[in-house]
TrEMBL record, chain A:
Residue ranges of domain DUF1549 in the record: 168-374
Domain of life: Bacteria
Stretches assigned to the DUF1553 domain: 465-726
Native source species: Arenibacter palladensis
InterPro entries xrefs: Cyt_c-like_dom_sf, Cyt_c_Planctomycete-type, DUF1549, DUF1553
Protein name stated in the entry: Planctomycete cytochrome C
Signal peptide: none
Annotated Cytochrome C Planctomycete-type domain residues: 56-119
Sample GO molecular function, one term: electron transfer activity
Automatic annotation (TrEMBL), chain B:
Listed InterPro entries: Alkaline_phosphatase_core_sf (IPR017850), DUF1501 (IPR010869)
The keyword Membrane belongs to this UniProt entry's keyword annotation: yes
Keyword list, A-Z: Membrane, Transmembrane, Transmembrane helix
Name of this protein: Tat (Twin-arginine translocation) pathway signal sequence
TM helices/strands, residue ranges: 20-41
Length: 780, 486
């Protein structure tokens, strides 16, 4: 007992110690940092600025209101000047750490002198202190923030190993691998690659015919042919759109408390169309930001601007118009920041940015571009809107049959029914003020449209409206736009971007793991006219992408997070891809493209339990669709912001209230339950079993066939043995228990085929075993 | 030591190891029992899960929170803030000096008069403490000496969505983690078989406002801290029930095969995430038993049903949820969030509010008494309140029998009990009109700081860095309200 108690105390102690470490209590003790090797040349952007930003900028950074002692450390000139409150003294004296008060305060033993102050919870570790010292010794050179310097193509690094690289990308990857004493993995098997490419480019597994053709063709460029075929498939546009919907905070409801229906889906159809037509990314952005302002704007260009009307709109009677109108403009501003420029602009809404060189003025200058829309904070409450079947708030455009038969033929609209879609206009010019503390009812100085000079000066030749902004965003000299996009594409394929914080390229964001590679790809992308299909193909043809994802003990030890890419990533697919995968492999998938969003299965009662009352708008009760509408791809599932489809949110989908560019990849028991018991999963297993029994005469082949259908490969002997044993057990059970067999196979609306119930039930459960495998829901 | 640790702290781990060691023998030999944890529902404190963050900053007074959120904003003037002046000056226009620039919602901004309206409910003093409670809440009046009424809450928001979002996440705009998620993040879980943060909803007959999943979202924190909505139907957790035609042992058999194939693949790929997947499947399997067991209120004795009222036997009611909250608290759930909709009385207030109060009065008081008789009140913090208050003037037609009140952010009342809160006190004061706070204001940030304090968390230290910024539930403000602590 006593022994147990003391063990308990030791354990609590250990856990507490771990906690103390995590919370940084021992950050300055130094021991664990003592061995870290200092770089030969200390780089301001990569070594010094992260330290200054994280520890010092709160009081000595860009925010003028919070600055202490007049010291500003983010600008070279000011950091090196005489201290205003300490004449004759300097924070930094190039070459002389002993005369640099910054360094002296950082290493001080006196708690009154120590910086950062102990009560800030911040502290530098011994390695960081040494870095600072060396940097000052080497001349304390400053540089512009790395992401604000336009990308350039660096010379390709060379390696002694010549048998691996397949294109330029690999040269950069190899350089870092060698620096970290790692070697690349061998090429993945052809099966794996074809499945990987299909998932990446179409969000679906390859079909049996494709697999067969690619595997039987031994030509050297077969993978390239496969990529081309996937890129040419209309499912490519759906896949890319799925990702863009998070960025664009797309939903089929208005959000806020009543959260009633809106008809934005024609905008979504346009996105699919744009991706499938391989619209260059710069044009894709320009039309979404300012299509309505283009000379002789076409209906299509106007429709694209729905992008900036996807934000939530309140229908709560009693709100103050100006307050909400300003929320909408704020949302557009923040979306431009996070989704397109990779900047946390919102930090400058209430005060100067504490880390990035963005002032509150910069924020409201961008804000003013979006502040001229002829919109209201509240047009109608949900009840009025529902009564009038009013699903779009002005400004909107009306799409008629005539247009869908002509210029807007990509919109999948029911004939005879006009659809209204919210779009942008500039027909209500407003004066923009800096809002003190970000509050709409506290206007300060007046501002006019402009873009932050630190990123790229806004040319005099550009119109001072959204069209000018769109041109500024897509200017080849804009250092952010291309980098941010290629980084997100990289993240889509590899699980993580080269800059892990794909939403933040600012000073507090993470640094690129391969800065030269990021720049090379970004530049190359622009040189190829922002061609998205080209970009994808380029990356996918690299040896880096085509590596095996098998992790050896050695590579896990040296590179546990796979930062250096000595192997391909292996990660769980999104909720949408998982559902689509199951629909496709079972044969249920309805391939129709576009159109109004649909309502597949959803556990009953979810909307009813949380709505604002049965009469508030049209999305208060959930009535699932019928027939083949149940089996559309997941990007067509109706998205209600206050209660998004649970089979998506359980797999980390955001609620789409705001722009999001990165999803978590969690692994939870709720996911395990959804995969086992969602009626969609069960029905798919049942239908796959029925189809297999009907199509495959040889019963011995059933288990193997189901396995092949789901995993796009042949089972190994060991796997086959486990599954066949399972099938036999299950069949024995159901042969003696027809009643439960009948109950089990009653899952889902899809018509039963005339197959033996016991065999169907047994094979259905076998399919369920396979659908629940980690491999099935993972891109390998 | 190693053995002891795994047994006491992470039964799952030892079971999994056990499970794998049996794989080579053959999956058939794997017994169902070895994967289950004994004493699953023993109740009482269990060792903390071994998460680095799962340790309070200082000695906590409360181990868990039950938050009885009254969605829609119940009027303080008909509940806990007694204002005889309103009776004396009934019908007079609210003096401009009192309104003092307060912005109005679009619903009353157009009114040319703001006639003062007294409470239709009578007030009396209760308990040794002499707390004023209206006749709408007879049961709560009886526990006046157990609770601390705060009459000086205030907020900036004047519309439901931002106001409720502020209360639940510390910010008026979407995107921040819910307070339950923060607590789960800061304190970890006490029970490996149940989520640490759960949500229960119910609805009264009064005018109601919607609820949103963002209110229990984990925001930028790991999704495992997300609130899990527990529902009254046959599927208390989404997808919890196996389909018809499958028995528990069938499911066990299926999972064993899933696991053995996953294990083979783990060896091939070297990806340890597969091990984690197997563990999650086992947790899901255990939840399939632990959740319905906790949710099954049929096991409660007659005396308890009497205490909470007959409604407690009707699934989905507030009373049933209160009873369930106690059962969840007993089983180590860290943060239990209830919402009762229907408190938005812009009109017909006397009738509607009486009905709403009837829904919640007995069960709210019963929860306090029940926790107390089990010795759990001292370490369970219970909170009762809405997202803002209501105006002292009438909305719409002036009719003392059938009036309405608009939203009022400057002063409103909530109450708290147990978990380190001083019982039998009334804190804070409003002016004679019940419009402005004249003593001891408590902002939402202060409220959050106080709750965290009682859970042993320093609100300035529980920090999460996201997008380069260090976030707190209390953002950059908040002071612990020391006067109401035991």
């Amino acid at each position: 007992m006593k022994q147990k108690l003391s063990i308990g105390i030791i354990l609590v102690g250990l856990v507490a110690l771990l906690f103390a470490f995590k919370s940084g209590l021992f950050k300055s003790s130094g021991d664990e940092y003592a061995d870290q090797k200092l770089p030969k040349v200390v780089d301001y952007n990569f070594h010094i600025k992260p330290i200054l930003s994280d520890n010092c900028y709160t009081c000595h950074g860009p925010d003028a209101n919070k600055r202490k002692a007049g010291l500003r450390l983010d600008l070279e000139k000011e950091a090196l000047s005489e201290l205003p409150e300490n004449p004759g003294k300097y924070a930094i004296v190039a070459g002389k750490p002993s005369n640099s008060l910054l360094y002296q305060h950082v290493v001080s033993d006196d708690p009154k002198q120590l910086m950062p102050p102990p009560d800030s919870q911040l502290a530098l570790n011994s390695y960081e202190k040494k870095l600072l010292k060396k940097w000052i010794e080497q001349g304390a050179k400053f540089d512009k923030h790395w992401a604000f310097i336009p990308p350039k193509k660096a010379e390709l690094p060379t390696s002694e190993r010549t048998d691996w690289a397949q294109n330029e990308i690999d040269a950069f990857i190899m350089e870092k691998l060698e620096e970290n004493d790692l070697a690349p993995s061998e090429k993945a098997g052809q099966h794996t690659l074809i499945r990987r490419m299909a998932l990446d480019l179409t969000g679906l597994p390859p079909n049996a015919d494709q697999v067969q053709r690619y595997l039987s063709n031994s030509s050297v460029d077969i993978l390239e042919l496969a990529i081309d075929e996937f890129l040419a498939s209309p499912t490519y546009g759906e896949r890319m759109t799925q990702v863009w919907l998070d960025v664009a905070r797309y939903a089929d409801s208005h959000g806020y408390q009543d959260d009633s229906y809106r008809s934005m889906w024609p905008w979504r159809d346009w996105v699919i169309h744009a991706f499938n037509n391989n619209m260059p990314y710069d044009e894709f952005l320009r039309v979404q930001l300012a299509g309505d302002l283009m000379p002789n704007a076409s209906k299509e260009q106007i429709l694209a601007t729905g992008f900036n009307r996807n934000h939530p709109i309140t229908q709560e009677g009693g709100v103050i118009q100006e307050e909400y109108q300003s929320y909408y403009v704020v949302d557009r501003t923040n979306t431009l920041g996070k989704g397109i420029l990779g900047l946390t602009l919102e930090c400058a809404k209430c005060h100067d940015h504490k880390y990035d060189q963005l002032s509150q003025r910069d924020y409201y200058e961008i804000y003013s571009f979006f502040n001229n829309v002829d919109e209201k904070g509240l047009r109608m409450d949900a009840v009025q809107a529902a009564n009038q079947k009013y699903f779009a708030d002005a400004p909107f455009m009306t799409i008629t049959d005539e247009e869908t038969q002509g210029v807007l033929s990509f919109i999948n609209k029911d004939e005879g029914k006009d659809v209204k879609v919210m779009v942008m206009n500039d027909s209500m010019p407003r004066t923009t003020y800096i809002f003190n503390r970000g509050e709409y009812d506290s206007p300060g100085e007046e501002v006019t449209p402009n873009a932050p000079e630190i990123i790229l000066p806004f040319s005099e030749n550009l119109p001072k409206n959204r069209l000018g902004l769109a041109q500024w965003v897509t200017d080849e000299n804009n250092p952010l736009t291309a980098r941010v996009f290629v980084n997100r594409i990289w993240g889509m394929l590899f699980g993580n971007g080269l800059v892990e914080t794909s939403e933040d390229f600012g000073v507090q964001g993470s640094l690129p793991s391969h800065p030269q590679l990021l720049d090379w790809i970004a530049k190359d992308f622009m040189e190829h006219d922002w061609d998205i299909k080209y970009l994808l193909k380029k990356i996918m043809l690299s040896a880096t992408y085509q590596q095996s994802s098998i992790a050896t003990e050695e590579s896990k030890k040296v590179d546990p997070d796979n930062k250096w890419l000595s192997r391909a990533p292996r990660f769980r697919m999104s909720g949408e891809i998982i559902r689509d995968y199951v629909l496709a492999t079972s044969g249920l998938l309805n391939k129709e493209i576009g159109g109004p969003s649909v309502k597949p299965y959803q556990p009953p009662g979810l909307w009813e339990e949380t709505n604002a009352g049965g009469n508030r708008g049209v999305l208060t009760t959930y009535v699932a669709d019928e027939g083949d509408k149940l089996y559309r791809r997941s990007l067509y599932t109706l998205w209600k912001r206050t209660l998004p489809p649970p089979s998506m949110s359980i797999f980390d989908a955001p609620n789409r209230d705001i722009c999001e560019v990165r999803r978590q990849k969690t692994n939870t028991p709720l996911q395990a339950l959804a995969l086992q018991n969602d009626v969609q999963m069960l029905e798919a297993a049942r239908v796959l079993a029925e189809n297999t029994i009907t199509d495959t005469k040889d019963a011995e082949q059933w288990v193997t066939t189901v396995f092949q259908r789901i995993l796009v490969r042949n089972p190994k002997e060991e796997e086959k043995k486990v599954l066949e044993e399972y099938y036999t057990d299950a069949l024995d059970k159901f042969l003696n228990d027809k009643e439960n067999a009948e109950k089990l196979i009653a899952q889902g609306e899809y018509k039963r085929l005339d197959t033996d119930p016991a065999k169907t039930a047994a094979l259905m459960l076998t399919a369920q075993v396979i659908y629940n495998l980690d491999e099935t829901i993972t891109k390998e | 030591m190693e053995e002891d640790k795994t047994n006491s702290e992470n039964p799952l781990k030892v079971n999994r190891r056990h499970f794998f060691s049996q794989l080579s023998v053959g999956i058939g030999s794997l017994a169902l029992g070895s994967l289950l944890i004994p004493d699953l529902f023993k109740g009482g404190p269990k060792p903390l899960a071994s998460q680095p963050l799962g340790i309070p900053h200082f000695a906590p007074k409360a181990k868990r929170v039950i938050y009885l959120f009254q969605s829609g904003a119940p009027s303080q003037l008909e509940s806990f803030d007694y204002k005889p002046t309103l009776t004396k000056r009934m019908g007079e226009d609210l003096p401009e000096s009192i309104r003092n620039g307060q912005r109005l919602t679009g619903m009353t901004a157009g009114q040319d008069k703001f006639p003062l309206m007294p409470s239709a409910a009578k007030f009396a003093q209760h308990g040794k403490s002499g707390a004023w409670v209206s006749e709408f809440f007879p049961h709560i009046a009886k526990i006046a000496d157990e609770i601390c009424i705060v009459r000086s809450m205030h907020t900036e928001a004047i519309n439901h969505d931002p106001a409720i979002t502020f209360f639940q996440t510390g910010s008026q705009q979407s995107g921040r983690p819910s307070m339950g998620s923060w607590m789960s993040y800061g304190l970890g879980s006490e029970n490996q078989n149940l989520p640490s943060f759960v949500v229960l909803t119910s609805r009264g007959k009064g005018n109601s406002q919607g609820l949103y999943s963002k209110l229990w979202s984990s925001g930028f924190l790991d999704s495992k801290h997300q609130g899990v909505l527990l529902r009254s139907g046959k599927d208390p957790v989404l997808y919890l029930n196996d389909p018809d035609g499958i028995s528990r042992s069938d499911k066990r058999h299926l999972l064993d095969h899933v696991s053995s194939l996953n294990k083979i693949h783990h060896v091939e790929t070297g990806d340890d995430e597969i091990e984690s997947r197997i563990a999650q499947y086992e947790m899901a399997y255990r939840m399939q038993m632990s959740v319905p067991d906790v949710m099954d209120i049929k096991k409660e004795p007659e005396s308890i049903i009497k205490l909470y009222g007959e409604d407690s036997q009707v699934p989905g009611t507030y009373a049933a949820n209160c009873l369930q909250a106690r059962r969840l608290a007993e089983n180590g759930v860290r943060f239990i969030q209830l919402y009762h909709q229907g408190w938005d009385q812009h009109g017909n207030l006397p009738n509607e509010m009486a009905g709403q109060a009837k829904d919640v009065d007995q069960a709210s008081a019963a929860l306090i008494l029940d926790l107390k008789q089990r010795g759990m009140l001292e370490d369970t913090l219970v909170i009762w309140g809405g997202e803002f208050g209501r105006t002292n003037y009438c909305q719409g037609n002036f009719d003392p029998k059938n009036y309405g009140r608009d939203h009022h952010p400057r002063a409103f009342s909530i109450w708290m009990a147990g978990g380190g809160i001083k019982p039998g006190i009334t804190y804070g004061e409003t002016d004679e009109f019940g419009y402005n706070i004249v003593k001891n204001p408590v902002h939402i940030n202060d409220f959050h700081a106080t709750i965290m304090n009682n859970l042993g968390l320093d609100h300035e230290q529980l920090i999460y860095k996201y997008q380069g910024r260090r976030f707190r539930l209390t953002d950059v403000a908040g002071n612990v309200v020391k006067d109401i602590l035991t």
